[in-house]
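Example (one chain per record):
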Amino acid sequence: MAILILGLLIFIGVHSIRLVSPAWRDAQVARLGENGWKGIYAVTSLVGFVLIVWGYGMARRVPQVLWIPPAGIRHLTALLVAVAFILIAAAYIPGNRIKRLIGHPMMAGTAMWGLGHLLANGTVNAVVLFGVFLVWGAVGVLVSRSRDRAAGVRYPAGTVSGDAKVVLVGLVAWAIFAFVLHRWLIGMSPLA
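Predicted structure:
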């Protein structure tokens, strides 16, 4: 569990710099250059991610059960994760109204993914992993939206066709992950 927690501290820590200390981040970008900062950011993120995967895998071998999720909860989880994939797609596909409405759909999608997985997993390691991502995503949306309001940030208006692209890409990506990649990468099928 210590490796999982260390990985989360590193990964979430580096992804929180812009939330908690944007001036420090900007100073580092100025000092190191854009590519230098991105390189350090990427390597640190990768180290954190590898530790999360390794630590979670080790903790899964000796699970400490807090609760047994109800049998039908996996369907609610699948729905929440499908919405999360749509939100994440909205962060990258231009011209959609979802980004204008939410402002930071990647963080909102991360929070939704965490919530869905918390409902379906009642072990200590799952609560730690998915709880951290739920809290980080929710706090990230709140902090970022507050900064947007203070700075007068307005996101471009989107279109119905932009929204349709977001939903289509999000649902296709979700289906591929849910029906193919989840079993291969995680070792279990979420809808079986």
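Caption: Residues 34-61 form the longest helix (28 residues).
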